[in-house]
Amino acid sequence: MTTPWTEDHIPDQTGRVAIVTGSNSGIGWEAARALANKGATVIMACRSIDKATPAADQINALKPAGKVVVMALDLGDLASVRAFATDFRQNYQRLDLLINNAGVAHPPYGKTAQGFEQQFGINHLGHFALTGLLLDRLGATPGARIVTVSSISHRSGIIHFDDLNLERNYKPSRGYAQSKLANLLFTYELQRRLVTAGQSTLAVAAHPGWSATNALRHSSFMRRLNPMFAQPPKMGVLPTLYAATAPDVRGGDFFGPSILELRGYPKKVDASASSHDEAVARRLWAISEELTQVKYALAGSGI
Predict the structure, then answer these.
(1) Which domain of life does the protein's organism represent (predicted)?
(2) Distance (Å, whole) CA 249 – CA 201
(3) In which element (H, E) is residue 41 found?
(4) For residue 30, which of 203, 237, 243, 300 is within the disulfide window of CB 3.0 to 4.6 Å?
(5) Which helix (H) or strand (E) holds 183?
(6) Cα(216)–Cα(105) distance, integer angstroms
(7) For 203-253, what is each residue's pLDDT tens digit?
(8) CATH placement of domain 13-292
(9) Order of strands across the sheet with 67-72?
(10) Helix, strand or coil for residue 205?
């Protein structure tokens, strides 16, 4: 990119439908705002309707060319994921953008409704299930993209197949890194399966670098450093928006900030070698389908 890419470069989104998970604040809110401003109908998929409604009102007050719609989605409860997918399918026949943005970072140990360690359960399994349940809407929409938000923390991640819930040795950073590596393994494996199935939908990934968002609310150390190092969410969202809308994006691309991947305008970045391990990705995929009971229907992909 010869000139800095900003949200002003987003193409017209009129007539397009987008889902942004966790869009009541931070990166997700900025993504919903920017896409609605360009004409999209944006589903703000949030756990708390009470928090999402005033967030949507803030966007509507800006008089966007498109609109925002609040829908309930708790990624920590697979029953809620299924209910959201059913509700969406009843009301929308197309899905142009699925932005898997919501997540929890560095919390005390806790489990989801189905008993998964919450970072793995929310950040990976919830989005894995959501994407699978909406795959036909994406496949029926020309130019559809799935953008999953990872983190530079994926580089220290390991998929602990013998203890996915980290019950024997839980550290918040360990759980977060595992979940963010899972996000990339999922993206790359999904893209391979989409290609094998002859689907035009793109699976891509992004990360916001070091951004001052509520995702760091559990880390007092990181919050103390925010004023010195973190960039505002309006900048942190740019890699996600680039992945979602830029015309030169290809399946399996990964975007992050340009300056040491911590801050700055978006650019294509490299992921760790671990994220490209196809054997690990296939194993994680099989386990994810088993744990979520969501089987991906991709004709011709051998699954």
Answers:
(1) Bacteria
(2) 12
(3) strand 41-46
(4) 237
(5) helix 172-196
(6) 6
(7) 999 999 876 556 554 455 555 544 545 788 999 999 999 999 999 999 999
(8) 3.40.50.720
(9) 67-72, 41-46, 17-21, 97-100, 145-149, 202-206, 254-259, 263-268
(10) strand
